[in-house]
């Protein structure tokens, strides 16, 4: 029995079915669930180490700038809002899709800049990853998060290119929607990070 | 099902809550409390990071301390080259005019100025030695060979600082540098009662390690004016002398062990070993053995070893104290047999108060003392009742 | 000729319904050969003087381990025999043969489920709950029944593990850690017989595990925290030496990291402690603060 | 992404055999990958056993090539590396690819009636990620100071820079991270495929047990591989950047970390990992016992429920690996109870398996023998777990050879037997050729007998107090007294190793020159993969089948004398086919 290629349906870009939307969303949900476990592990490690210290932050350790971290949180939350808006508009096939998407990208870059500032500031004060347990956890967790921000940024840029080439639209929203979900996830993780490192 | 499980879990958690002494809560008090007397900038606490594993440059180590083959009796060069020739025939030739050996492979070279031979050790071999050193030795002796390894802290006696080129229990004249075979044997046999284990690896690897350890000796350091700030140590020092292990093949007391022990007791107390080690006889008997006046008295605590400070060997900036062994109590580092004890006494213990006895005391007498010391260990060590009886009598007699 | 002639149908007949219906021609020959193989493998055991059991327990509660071990062996042994029997019966009785048809049963009836549930409960009670009960009792009465903090009788030891040696510090005559008469030894621990010995284990570098097989105890020595463990030797252990092993991989010379445990009768021990403390005082170097490691004993 | 699992058959060699997105090709790639690593890991096991039986003797033949500097003698550091990498390789690069990669990829789409995995590209990525992980792991064997030497568990501080220098350990952590990422990708794919791509009528209750096993495994993979991934990242940070996650402050060092934290993280993953490996094997065994006993699987729903219970409980029992680390008494006792509870579903599985073959009509093929072998070895291994779940016996037995025997029987031998059973069963569908049954049976007997001797002797030496991971068991006097047991174990292990060469020969020979399978359904079973030609064609199903029956309908009383099975696409005698499910996936291929 040989395969007849002609039997196969065309793999152009037919409109996405409701079914494929569910497939993609389920896959994405599992992926997010999996990655949430990875972050949960990191936070568990953080909490265990923190609990071992008499006081937190450990004696003589100054926190990185709270104001900048708060600003980063605001920027990232704003990017979540714009991302949500972009996906909603995209699904309706409206023109604001590209604009809101670009706004998200801009805010994401803004967050990356603030995050870099936080590192440079801390590093410049002579506080390196091996300086102590606070620095260990701070760099460890923010690096891991930043890795996801970087992936998110690449995805946002890829998405923008796709939008520019009109590859995505009302009938083709799986990729942008999943990028959006991923971005929201990155935001949520940052909020938890912010709360654990800067608030409590 | 999950609910039921969790309920069961919760139920047992409460049911099994132990009370009082059985409760082992993992609270903060379980953490290691601060330990007295340790400064935070302790060299033992350096984080083991960026440890180099590869050595890129060949190095030169002192191979033999002379020279023209007919000078002094205890030159190491004739011994070394005789061995090397046996191992590699046709490789070494004797240069009649300049009176030194020539190595066809160029590994051993004659230094005319300092009248010594240098051995060129390849970077490849040093790298092998370095990597084995890192795995086996560095935990105590430190990644830089300075004796400040993480596991070496608070160890007494402290792990050797290899940069100084000072070794104990090599069975080589304590004034001299030990030959390779002596160090190899030490690594293979280990030192009793210390974490220096009898390292159970192939001899090729031990020889690599030994060469690497020799290369840790400090070369001379020059200050800004080109003056010598610090002398070269160990195998970097062209004036160093290399010694061979003491031979112990002609036991004069063979077959007369009881006599030897009796004689040894006399010699032991005669040569005033009790100045550092304990005395093992009553005052009266010691006077009798040493031919002293009956009114002669001895140091306080004669039945205990006397701690001496080793000023040649410092740890954390102060001289460490050395406890001469009480042979009825401590294990001897390398004294499994009478011959081993003889070698150690004859050679002395470098860097400790134990001098080289060979030459200053007749061999026969060193042998007798060895018999006596070994007898003390065999009879009393770890035999608490016998020892208690013996020492009580001795103590009562002071 | 192959020593293992085919017992099964060849692939040619695979598609027929008579599949696998061949008679077991050479099973016994096969079994014979395998028995011979087994005998060869077991030969060293028969010839050698290999120990195949732990030495008799030298601690007051070690026999609890041995007894529970044997209880579990009996329980699981019977269970395994039942499994084997339930496997053997169908293998022998219910082979496929022409015309034979399997019993059609999904095992999904309420009756089957009830039966499964009952068997599960019975197995849980007989195997697990019983063992659990015995074990928890043993733990509370023995392993976790530490002597009280103010116990005069208890003998306390601080164990500091390192690559690759055991450092022991005992408080000496004054009973306090961190004083001049502390007895510090390497790879040698001397304890009194028939007195509770409480040990605090910690480590300088990596994780080690303090394992005294003859006392049936084991506890990890972790860097950064202190673990407790205790035992009490039987009176008749006095005068014997036992071994302390490291049970947690700790690097290159893990296998060489063993120490000696000497048990002395209480009288001998009192003498020993006198002398050891005197020696410790004599060799105490007040300047050498680094050598004065000790921690507040964790009761 | 193809949403109905259909993509045209590639024509170039590269797309067809190397970077293929076809689940069957990927399954074969995983299989070869796993088998090669099993060979390497097995060779390491032989070296380990050689060293234990003849400490200090040069390893024959290969020794002089591998370690010329020591004239073929296995040094303690090399020994540590061997058993550490043996564990890592067998678990992550041998069994995981074989059981989950190969059987998961091969069986899931075929058994649920799909044309491919739902995310074929992700599937391909999953394979190439594990290859990258394997490459990194293999490379680590050749860096200065060698590969991982801290045991497969890699406990810090021994695995941090405090205990080991060099890049071997770091590369190991990278490799485990990559392999974990691969498993997560696979897991996401499996779950989504099983949820979304079941053929019409393939209800959850009609899925073969193999698929159920793989499904639960996928769930565990997705949930717990990220945990080890993060733990490894922290270890890498510790080693490369000097952070202090796992480096505790002791009085001779700084650091505010906690080495026990790693043990918690590791075993939160590590215990489910045991079930990750064993669940597919359980699934395969559950199916094959029914297939070859020609009898419906006994208590299908209960079996699935038991597997589900194991999946849930697997994450709650991990503390039994840490009874001696200093867990509080309360935690210890709780973990002991939970561990004992997890034995109940295990016991139910046994109950159902044994009832499945009871009053059956057993066809003693090699696949059946290996399935029965799983009952035997898992019985031995599972029951000995009771000693280790019980704290007062575990205190003595922890980190002794008893543990080694136990986990080899439960995790290694059972999983491997499951994989072998599957291979003998699905070989005709996979390659269109049968494995030689005569050699197969010989392989079975020469495997199970020495295997039992090997691991039961380990029980004895563990009971007698021999600790694990001793490079020279004759060094410590207490352990040296047990040397005879080591010799027995080693002799049996060498026979076991040689028997696997028999399998390698059989597999290679049968793969290319074996007896051809000319029919669709040589074993006469009802699951969907046997309704299509052998080997399975590129698109699997010409037409997506409609399922009307469960997977284990054998020996129905209404069937005639010539036939004792019903395909899943055929209605049971005396019933009318159900209407197909409305959630029909993909358009059927029309001729």
CATH top level of chain A is: Mainly Alpha
Report low-confidence residues of chain A grouped into runs of 5 or more.
1-11
Beta-strand content of chain D: under 5%
Largest interface: C-D, 117 and 133 residues
Rg of chain D, Cα atoms, Å: 24 Å
CATH fold annotation of chain D: Cytochrome C Oxidase, Chain A
Helix count of chain A equals 5
Instruction: Give the % helix of chain D.
Output: 55-70%
Q: Give the tally of β-strands of chain A.
A: 0
Under CATH at level 1, the class of chain D stands as Mainly Alpha
Average predicted local confidence, pLDDT of chain D: 91
Structural class of chain A: mainly alpha
CATH superfamily of chain A: Cytochrome c oxidase, subunit III, four-helix bundle
So what's the oligomer here? Answer: heterotetramer
* Mean pLDDT across every amino acid position of chain A: 87
Summarize the biggest pleated sheet of chain D.
none
Give the number of domains of chain D: 1
Helix proportion range of chain A = over 70%
Structural domains of chain A: how many: 1
List the defining traits of the structure above.
heterotetramer, A: 200 residues, mainly alpha, Four Helix Bundle (Hemerythrin (Met), subunit A), disordered N terminus, B: 398 residues, alpha+beta, two-stranded antiparallel sheet, 11 helices, 11 strands
What does this protein structure show overall?
- The complex is a heterotetramer of chains A (200), B (398), C (299) and D (591).
- With 200 residues, chain A is mainly α.
- Chain A has helices spanning 18-52, 66-92, 96-124, 133-164, 174-199.
- Chain A has one domain (24-52, 67-199): Cytochrome c oxidase, subunit III, four-helix bundle (Four Helix Bundle (Hemerythrin (Met), subunit A), Up-down Bundle), CATH 1.20.120.
- Chain A is built from 5 helices and no strands.
- The N and C termini of chain A lie far apart (66 Å).
- Chain B is an alpha+beta fold and 398 residues long.
- Chain B is 32% helix and 12% strand.
- Chain B has 11 helices and 11 strands.
- Chain B has helices at 2-15, 77-87, 123-136, 138-141, 180-189, 203-215, 257-270, 283-290, 338-347, 363-380, 384-396; strands at residues 59-64, 92-95, 100-103, 108-111, 116-121, 177-178, 221-222, 228-230, 242-243, 308-315, 318-322.
- In chain B, the strands form 5 sheets. A 3-stranded antiparallel β-sheet of chain B has the order 1-5-4. In chain B, strands 2-3 form a two-stranded antiparallel sheet.
- In chain B, a hairpin with a 4-residue loop joins β2 (92-95) and β3.
- In chain B, α3 (123-136) packs across α6 (203-215) and α9 (338-347) packs across α10.
- The longest helix of chain B is centred in the C-terminal third of the chain and has 18 residues, at 363-380.
- Chain B starts with a helix and ends with a helix.
- Mean pLDDT of chain B is 83; it is low at 8-39.
- In chain C, α2 (62-93) runs antiparallel to α3.
- Mean pLDDT of chain C is 85; it is low at 1-25.
- Chain C is elongated, with a radius of gyration of 29 Å.
- Chain C has helices spanning 27-47, 62-93, 110-143, 266-282; strands at residues 155-162, 165-170, 183-186, 188-192, 196-203, 208-212, 217-221, 227-232, 241-246, 259-264.
- The longest helix of chain C has 34 residues, at 110-143.
- Chain C has 2 domains: 25-98 and 106-143, no CATH class; 155-291, Cupredoxins -  blue copper proteins (Immunoglobulin-like), CATH 2.60.40.
- Chain D is mainly alpha-helical.
- The two termini of chain D are 24 Å apart.
- Residues 1-5 and 579-591 of chain D have low confidence and may be disordered.
- Classes of the chains: A mainly alpha (200), B alpha+beta (398), C alpha+beta (299), D mainly alpha (591).
- Chains A and D meet through α1 and α4 of A and α6, α7 and α8 of D.
């Amino acid at each position: 029995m040989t395969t007849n290629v002609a039997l196969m349906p065309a793999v152009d870009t037919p409109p996405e079915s409701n079914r494929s939307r569910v497939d993609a969303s389920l896959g994405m949900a599992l992926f997010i669930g999996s990655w949430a476990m990875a972050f949960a592990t990191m936070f568990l490690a953080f909490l265990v180490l923190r609990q071992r210290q008499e006081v937190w932050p450990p004696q003589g350790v100054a926190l990185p700038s709270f104001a900048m971290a708060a600003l980063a949180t605001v920027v990232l939350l704003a990017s979540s809002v714009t991302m949500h808006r972009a996906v909603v508009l995209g699904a309706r096939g409206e023109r604001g899709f590209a604009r809101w998407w670009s706004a998200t990208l801009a805010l994401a870059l803004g967050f990356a800049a603030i995050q870099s500032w936080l590192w440079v500031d801390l590093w410049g004060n002579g506080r390196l990853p091996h300086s102590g347990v606070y620095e260990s956890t701070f760099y460890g967790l923010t690096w891991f998060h930043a890795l996801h921000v970087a992936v998110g940024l690449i995805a946002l840029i890829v998405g923008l290119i796709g939008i520019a080439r009109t590859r995505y639209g009302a009938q083709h929203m799986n990729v942008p929607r999943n990028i959006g979900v991923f971005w929201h996830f990155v935001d949520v993780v940052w909020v938890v990070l912010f709360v654990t490192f800067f608030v409590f | 099902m999950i609910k039921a499980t969790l309920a069961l879990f919760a139920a047992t958690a409460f049911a099994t809550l132990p009370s009082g002494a059985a409760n082992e809560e993992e609270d903060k008090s379980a953490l290691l409390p601060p330990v007295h007397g340790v400064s935070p900038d302790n060299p033992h606490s350096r984080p083991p990071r960026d440890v180099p594993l590869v050595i890129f440059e060949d190095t030169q180590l002192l191979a033999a301390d002379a020279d023209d083959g007919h000078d002094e009796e205890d030159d190491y060069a004739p011994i070394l080259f005789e061995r090397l020739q046996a191992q590699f025939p046709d490789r070494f030739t004797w240069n009649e005019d300049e009176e030194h050996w020539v190595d066809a492979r160029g590994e051993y070279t004659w230094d005319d100025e300092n009248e010594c031979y240098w051995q060129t050790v390849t970077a490849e071999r040093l790298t092998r030695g370095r990597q084995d050193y890192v795995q086996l030795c560095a935990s105590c002796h430190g990644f830089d060979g300075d004796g400040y390894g993480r596991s070496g802290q608070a160890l007494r006696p402290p792990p050797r600082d290899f940069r100084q080129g000072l070794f104990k229990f090599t069975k080589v004249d304590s004034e001299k540098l030990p030959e390779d075979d002596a160090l190899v044997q030490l690594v293979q046999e280990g030192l009793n009662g210390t974490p220096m284990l009898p390292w159970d690896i192939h001899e090729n690897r031990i020889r690599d390690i030994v060469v690497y350890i020799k290369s840790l000796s400090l070369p001379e350091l020059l200050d800004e004016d080109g003056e010598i700030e610090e002398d070269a140590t160990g195998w970097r020092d062209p004036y160093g002398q290399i010694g061979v292990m003491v031979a112990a093949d002609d036991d004069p007391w063979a077959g007369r062990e009881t006599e030897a022990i009796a004689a040894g007791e006399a010699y032991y107390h005669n040569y005033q070993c009790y100045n550092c080690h304990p005395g093992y006889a009553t005052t009266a008997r010691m006077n009798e053995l040493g031919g002293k006046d009956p009114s002669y008295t001895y140091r306080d605590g004669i039945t205990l070893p006397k701690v001496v400070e080793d000023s040649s060997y410092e740890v954390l900036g102060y001289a460490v104290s050395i406890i001469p062994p009480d042979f009825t109590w401590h294990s001897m580092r390398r004294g499994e047999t009478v011959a081993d004890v003889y070698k150690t006494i004859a050679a002395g213990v470098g860097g400790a108060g134990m001098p080289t006895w060979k030459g200053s005391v007749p061999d026969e007498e060193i042998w007798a003392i060895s018999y006596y010391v070994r007898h003390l260990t065999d009879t009393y060590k770890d035999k608490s009742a016998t020892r208690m009886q013996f020492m009580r009598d001795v103590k009562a007699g002071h | 000729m192959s020593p293992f002639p085919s017992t099964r149908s060849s692939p040619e007949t695979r598609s027929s319904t008579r599949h696998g219906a061949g008679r077991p021609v050479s099973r016994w020959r096969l079994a014979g050969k395998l028995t011979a193989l087994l005998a060869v493998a077991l030969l060293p055991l028969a010839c050698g003087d290999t120990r195949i059991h732990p030495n008799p327990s030298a601690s007051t509660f070690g026999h609890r381990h041995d007894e529970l071990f044997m209880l579990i062996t009996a329980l699981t042994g019977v269970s395994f025999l039942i499994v084997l029997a339930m496997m053997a019966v169908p293998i022998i009785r219910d082979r496929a043969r022409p015309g034979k048809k399997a019993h059609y049963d999904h095992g999904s009836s309420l009756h089957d489920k009830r039966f499964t549930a009952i068997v599960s409960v019975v197995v849980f009670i007989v195997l697990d709950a019983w063992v659990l009960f015995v074990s928890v009792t043993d733990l509370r009465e023995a392993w976790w029944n530490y002597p009280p903090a103010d116990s005069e009788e208890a003998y306390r030891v601080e164990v500091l593990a390192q690559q690759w040696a055991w450092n022991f510090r005992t408080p000496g005559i004054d009973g306090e850690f961190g004083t001049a008469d502390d007895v510090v030894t390497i790879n040698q621990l001397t304890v009194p017989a028939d007195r509770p010995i409480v040990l605090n284990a910690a480590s300088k570098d990596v994780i080690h595990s303090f394992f005294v097989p003859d006392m049936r105890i084991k506890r990890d020595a972790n860097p950064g925290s202190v673990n407790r463990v205790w035992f009490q030797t039987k009176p008749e252990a006095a005068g014997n030496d036992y071994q302390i092993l490291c049970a947690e991989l700790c690097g290159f010379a893990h296998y060489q990291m063993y120490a000696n445990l000497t048990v002395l009768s209480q009288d001998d021990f009192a003498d020993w402690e006198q002398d050891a403390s005197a020696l410790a005082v004599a060799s105490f170097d007040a300047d050498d603060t680094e050598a004065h490691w000790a921690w507040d004993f964790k009761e | 992404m193809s949403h109905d699992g259909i993509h045209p058959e590639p024509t170039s060699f590269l797309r067809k055999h190397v970077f293929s997105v076809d689940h069957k090709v990927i399954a074969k790639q995983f299989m070869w990958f796993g088998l090669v690593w099993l060979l390497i890991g097995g060779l390491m096991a032989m070296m380990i056993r050689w060293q234990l039986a003849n400490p200090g003797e040069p390893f024959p033949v290969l020794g002089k090539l591998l370690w010329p500097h020591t004239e073929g003698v296995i040094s303690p550091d090399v020994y540590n590396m061997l058993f550490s990498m043996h564990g890592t390789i067998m678990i992550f690069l041998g069994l995981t690819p074989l059981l989950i990669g190969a059987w998961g990829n091969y069986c899931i789409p075929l058994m649920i009636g799909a044309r491919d995995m739902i995310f074929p590209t992700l599937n391909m990525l999953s394979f190439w990620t594990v290859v990258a992980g394997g490459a990194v792991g293999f490379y680590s064997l050749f860096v200065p100071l060698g590969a991982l030497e801290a045991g497969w568990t890699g406990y810090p501080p021994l695995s941090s820079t405090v205990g080991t220098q060099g890049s071997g350990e770091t590369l190991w952590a990278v490799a485990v991270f990559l392999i974990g990422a691969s498993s997560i990708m696979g897991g996401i794919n499996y779950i989504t495929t099983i949820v979304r791509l079941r053929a019409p009528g393939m209800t959850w209750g009609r899925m073969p047990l193999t698929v159920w096993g793989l499904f639960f495994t996928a769930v565990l993979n997705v949930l717990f591989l990220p945990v080890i991934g993060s733990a490894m990242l922290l270890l890498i940070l510790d080693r490369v950047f000097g952070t202090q996650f796992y480096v505790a402050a002791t009085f001779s060092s700084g650091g505010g970390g906690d080495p026990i934290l790693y043990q918690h993280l590791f075993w939160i993953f590590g215990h489910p990992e045991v079930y990750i490996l064993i669940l597919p094997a359980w699934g395969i065994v559950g199916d094959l016992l029914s297939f070859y006993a020609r009898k419906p699987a006994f208590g299908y729903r209960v079996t699935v429920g038991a597997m589900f219970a194991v999946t849930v409980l697997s994450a709650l029992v991990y503390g039994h690996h840490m009874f001696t680390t200093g867990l509080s008494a309360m935690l210890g006792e709780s973990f002991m109870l939970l561990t004992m509870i997890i034995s109940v579903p295990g016991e139910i599985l046994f109950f159902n398996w044994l009832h499945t073959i009871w009053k059956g009509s057993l066809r003693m093929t090699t696949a059946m023998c290996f399935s029965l072998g799983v009952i035997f070895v898992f019985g031995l291994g599972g029951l000995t777990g009771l000693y280790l779940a019980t704290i007062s016996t575990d205190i003595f037995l922890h980190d002794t050879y008893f543990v080694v025997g136990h986990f080899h029987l439960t995790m290694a031998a059972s999983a491997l037997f499951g994989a072998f059973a599957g291979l003998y069963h699905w070989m005709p569908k996979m390659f269109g050729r049968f494995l030689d049954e005569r050699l197969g049976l010989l392989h079975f007997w020469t495997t199970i007998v020495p295997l039992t001797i090997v691991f039961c002797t380990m029980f004895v030496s563990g009971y007698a107090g021999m600790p694990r991971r001793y490079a020279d068991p004759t060094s410590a006097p207490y352990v040296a007294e047990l040397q005879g047991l080591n010799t027995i174990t080693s002799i049996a292990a060498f026979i076991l190793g040689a028997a696997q060469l028999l399998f390698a020969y059989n597999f290679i020979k049968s793969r290319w020159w074996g007896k051809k399978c000319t029919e669709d359904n040589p074993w006469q079973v009802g699951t969907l993969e046997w309704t299509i030609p052998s080997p399975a064609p590129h698109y699997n199903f010409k037409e997506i089948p409609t399922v009307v029956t469960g997977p284990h309908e054998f020996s129905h009383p209404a069937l005639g004398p010539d036939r004792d099975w019903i395909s899943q696409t055929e209605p049971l005698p005396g019933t009318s086919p159900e209407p197909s499910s409305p959630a029909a996936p993909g358009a059927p291929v029309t001729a």
